[in-house]
Amino acid sequence: MHPIRYSPVYAYLAAHALEWGAAGDAELALRLDTAANEAAAVSDLALCDLSGLARFGFRGASASEWLLSAGVPVPSEVFGTASLPGHGIIARLGTEEFLMEEGLNQNLVTDLSRQLGTGLPGVYRIDRHDGTFLLCGRRATKVLAQTCGVNFQETPLGRVVFTRVAAINCMILPQRAGEVPGYRLWTDPSFAVDLWQTLAEIVGELQGRVVGAASVG
Amino acid sequence: MNRRLSPRPGEWIDRSRPLEFHFEGQAYSGFQGDVLSSALWANDVRMTGRSFKYHRARGPYSLANCDVNAMVEDGEHTNMRGDVLPITAGLDVRAVNTVGGLAADRLRITERFSRLMPVGFYYKAFHTPRRLFPVYEKQMRKVAGLGRINPTIVARPTPKEYAFCDLCVIGAGPAGLSGAIAAAELGLQVLVVEELPRPGGSLTWQWAGDSAARGHLERLLMRASSIPNLEIRCATQVAGCYADHWIALVDECRLTKLRAGALLVAAGCYEQPAVFGNNDLPGVMLASAAQRLMHLYAVKPFDRCVVLAANSEGYRVASDLHTAGVEVTMVVDLRPAGETSSWRHTVEQAKIRILPKHMIYEALPDKSGTRVRGAVVCPLNDSGQPRSDAGWSIDCDGVVMSVGWAPTADLLYQAGGRFRYDDRLEQLIPGMLPATVFAAGRANGVFELDDQLLDGRRAGLAAAARLGRYQGALPEMSMHRDAPHSHPYPIFEHARKKNFVELDEDLHLTDFINAHQEGYDNIELLKRYTTVGMGPSQGKLSNLNAVRILARLNGRTIDETGTSTSRPFHHPVSFGHLAGRRFHPTRRTPIHDWHAKAGAKFVHVGAWLRPEFYSNGVLSREQSILDEAQHVRGNLGLIDLGTLGKFEVRGPDAARFLDRIYTGNFADHKIGRIRYAVACDESGVLYDEGVVARLAEDRFYVTATTAGSAVFYREMQRWAMVWRMNVTLINLTGQFTAMNLAGPRSWEAFAALTDVKLSHNAFPFLAAREGKVAGVQAVLMRVGFVGELGYEIHVPAGYGQHVWSALMEAGKAHRIRPFGTEAQRLLRLEKGHLIVGQDTDALTTPSEADLDWAVSDGKPFFVGQRSLAICRKQRLTRRLVGIRFAQDHRGPLPQECHLIFEQNEVVGRVTSITHRSTLGYALGMAFLRPDLAQPGRLVQIKLDDGKRVTAEVAALPFYDPGNHRQK
User: Fold this and answer.
1) What's the CATH code, domain B640-828?
2) Looking at residue B680, what DSSP letter applies?
3) For position B966, what pLDDT does the model report?
4) With CB atoms counted within 10 Å of each terminal CB, which end of chain A scores lower, N or C?
5) A201 to chain B: closest CA residue
6) What is the pLDDT of residue B68?
7) How far apart are CA B386 and CA B409, in angstroms?
8) Could you give the residue ranges of the DSSP H alpha helices within A70-119?
9) Whether residue A38 sits in one domain with residue A77
10) CB contact B467 to A (< 8 Å)
11) Distance between CA atoms of residues B417 and B411, nearest Å
12) Exposed/middle/buried for residue B383 (C-beta within 10 Å: 0-12, 13-18, 19+)
């Protein structure tokens, strides 16, 4: 039997998605509207579910050593990040703690996850099935301003911030694609539906859109 | 009668956009830009409300958001202030706090009994006899308060917003704008907050008749608009200042939580009233209110009026009124020497009579008691007291007061500032401000326009210097140059008429004198007894006069008397704004949507939503629960355990760590085995329990209770640091999910879905295995919380739905059914398994919970060990036991927490109970005095109605004592 991995907000996406694609053993909602509409929203205000991307974490005294041996760039500072192929991400969450998230149409993280298994001496696996959402567009900070007390005008790009969004613990990575700001949020899967509903509601009130992963790839 | 003036420069109304609105059921017209009070006044409607206690007629008084005399409701919103409520097409409002309408308010009769209702009368009158208090209370609740809340209105969520700036400037008047520009020009991110719909502050009303002042305003606004890092937010109130410059901003739509690096308060002053007879009549108003009517709304305030003055502003307003076509009969000046500035000459040129060393003794009402028809003017003697015998009356329809100012001190107080009284200014000014808080303008006692502009710039530069953006010299602080702008005591007794100090709460001068005589001689005590400053305007027009009165009664200075504490909110804030959008996160398991489709009725367990039971729409809740439980006993059930605390403990010291965390022995825990685990705190109190599965030499998988998992994880983290052990804790509570396949047919259903061998020898009771379930890597545990053969399956959350569906599919042939938390609760109760937090409390030790078997005495240390050793030396006072009721029991049964009695002594309490079980009788668990805890003993349990019911102490477990079924 082939296992299927579901996004925490699968029910919402199943009711709205027009086009699906695979991300390893997960289904990824690729489009919820026309490409043109989604493209316009992405530069203005859009919310996208990326929970289907594979990810895992690990920590332990030998964590960075293992990464180096695997040829993966190691962010030099705690809370720093580095890019992986296909907009994948590696984030350093502690001195010897990391989170890796797969890029679209990539296998690097999946392969490394398989290699690590339940762990190696000095490297302990941390399963991560977070709700992962991308809030993007010029007005993305308007949504964050209603839900989060962090001043994102002053947070540097590429450094993760641990905070609360809509009273839910989150990790946020401020990014930028060209001139368009984006904020990738990770949250515990049990809180993901609540967070998604809140963000989607505010995005809707501000005339933004929920878009598919194909539009933010 | 239309009182609208011809168009004036700077007016806020848009004459091209007339509007119709309704007040008290009557249609009126106004213009876009009008507020309710101005539009009504333009229609010559002077009475806008009734007073709080005596239901006296009241009208616009300040037009500065302090007018509790003009509060209205529209059926949805209540207590809206007419002096700041913009009129809109179709607006339909009524005055609050009336019975029978504003004009015919039946409660105005209360004034006839005012002698029976001195301040504090309710403290004395209604507490005896006690039996009558409910009657009093009912009547008081009917008449007390202001507007009424409409409970049928569904609240609209208002979003909250976070905002940030380097410098927050409160007030967009000349000083505020000047300071904001100075700071913004140095690169600071500046946010100016103005409560009025347009910027300009006093430039828009007080100085509006001055073309040079209008030029200042235009230049300031033009410069401000050209600076990208300067934002002006109008129609936004500062509701409060909190620690670290957390400033609450309230606009029509939302509450904004602003975090500022520094704060500049340039919010000006509130004009203060004089206290004389009938000083609350509609038509008696502050000079600034008259100027706002004229300059902002182009409304002629009166036809003929008297100005009571004690400062140059009084002369300025007399001139403004004259220019607007009002016949100013005279300027009555409280000061012996009168005005010394050039304004005196201006007034004299307008042929307005000036009477120094005089006062207005009382305002005279017309027959209806709702309008001014005249005023009694009398001279003052050398000690400043009115010579009422020498007074005379004059006809007028308005009395204008211009006797002094009080700084908008609330926000500075809240920001940590302190004020002192300046005798030269006769005004409170900042005495001490925190390093990042600044004041400018009138609050500093700076009244001249040029000085205000300079003072604002000085404060803006000082803020920039403090924030590291300015190193230059700071301009000197502007000094006050002329006569005081406030009278030291504009308060006069009247032999017969009420002379109000506080309009919010209907407090007149006598109330303060009486309170002082009763011993309330401290400002805080006086405030609480009289309730001065506790009404909707929060004493903005009364606190200073109250302090002046108390100071005089005590024979002390203002500084010696002090001022009362100022707390948020500065203006009232609606509950909707405070509530904001609902942020009460709920946790859901990955299988939540499946449960919902299957008819689950959810229950909150901590932050989680769990299926309580599944409804088929036919059976009752109780029947459904029993049905699910019986199905598990006879067939096969599946329950979602995703809410359990789930942790990995890894590392070389993992076993040693758990050995210290739990009461049991884990150092010799075998790989592939499970142990029940009890955790105590340092006082020996049982606070969590679960199972521990050893998956490898250095790897344990640990579960904890749903409600207690966060605390347990936090405690593990704390101890890991304290003990400095080489251990890694991984919280998988949300990242993993779990389910329990339970029932005699679970083996048959499960075998086809997993690669783990399930035979008794290969996977015995209390064993743990890792393997695949429906293709997903899982941790499997043979445990029996419900007392049947069962498999607890733990998988990563993302695969939870897949595995659950696969199990339901595989179980179809075995009549699988989901079961909820209530059925599980029943089944575990039959097995005598306790639930921490329900069958234990904040003092329960393992001994009391009959869990001594889970405490290892032979190991050197565990958390709580020493306390437990002490407890064991003492006599046990209670023990958790089973209780049951006869199979043929009829009648009511106890509920959880009902007390158990031996004669008249409380000897225990019920902790869990089920009225229907699969065993055919009601059963439960209870704490009981140990000497009564023998099985078979009968005990009496007291019900809510006082009746007692008999239960029998029973040995635990009730079901399958040999544990044959779960093995």
Assistant:
1) 3.30.1360.120
2) E
3) 85
4) N
5) B581
6) 87
7) 31
8) 108-116
9) no
10) no
11) 9
12) exposed
pLDDT of residue A171: 98
Domain that holds residue A118: 55-127
CATH 3.40.710.10: does it fit domain B160-270+406-466? Answer: no
Residue of B nearest to A146 (CA): B161
Total residue count of chain B as it appears in this document: 967
Bridge partners, A125 (sequence order): A58
Same domain, A120 and A186: no
- Which CATH class for the B1-155 domain? alpha beta
Pairing relationship of beta strands B728-731 and B405-407 according to DSSP bridges: unpaired
CATH of B273-403, one of 3.40.50.2300, 1.10.260.40, 3.50.50.60, 3.40.50.1970: 3.50.50.60
Residue B434 CA to residue A164 CA, distance in Å, equals 30
Nearest by CB to A149, from B257, B695, B801: name it. Answer: B257
Q: At residue A1, does pLDDT exceed 80?
A: no
**SS3 category, B698:** coil
Residues of A in contact with B800 (CB under 8 A): 6
pLDDT digits (tens, 9 = 90+) for A130-157: 999 999 999 999 999 999 999 998 899 9
Which pLDDT belongs to residue B171? 98
- Please state the domain count of chain A: 2
Tokens 């405690």, located at residue: B715
Confirm or reject contact between B602 and chain A (CB < 8 A): no
Residue A3: closest C-alpha in chain B: B775
Report whether B325 contacts B294 (CB < 8 A): no
Which residues of chain B have a pLDDT value below 70? Answer: none
CATH number, residue A199: 3.30.1360.120
Q: Which CATH class is domain B494-575?
A: mainly alpha
Q: Where are the domains of chain B?
A: 1-155, 160-270+406-466, 273-403, 494-575, 640-828, 875-954
Residue of A nearest to B776 (CA): A3
Residues from A in contact with B at Cβ < 8 Å: 1-8, 10-11, 26, 51, 59-60, 118-119, 124, 126-130, 145-151, 153-154, 166-168, 188-191, 193-195, 198, 202, 205
Indicate which CATH number applies to the domain containing A115. Answer: 3.30.70.1520
Tell me the C-alpha to C-alpha distance, in Å, between residue B735 and each of A187, B91, B458, B642, B738: 10, 54, 56, 9, 10
Residue that the structure tokens 């009364």 belong to: B542
Per-residue pLDDT tens digits for A164-212? 999 999 999 999 988 899 999 999 999 999 999 999 999 999 999 999 9
pLDDT level of residue A44 (50, 70, 90 thresholds): very high
Alpha helices by DSSP H, B467-600: 509-517, 523-530, 543-554, 558-561, 575-579, 592-597
In a domain, A101, yes or no: yes
Name the nearest CA neighbour of B596 among B610, B582, B606: B610
What gap in Å lies between CA A207 and CA B5, rounded to an integer? 44
Q: Which of B730, B953, B941, B956 is nearest to B829 (CA)?
A: B956
Phi, psi of B809 (to 5 degrees): -70, -45
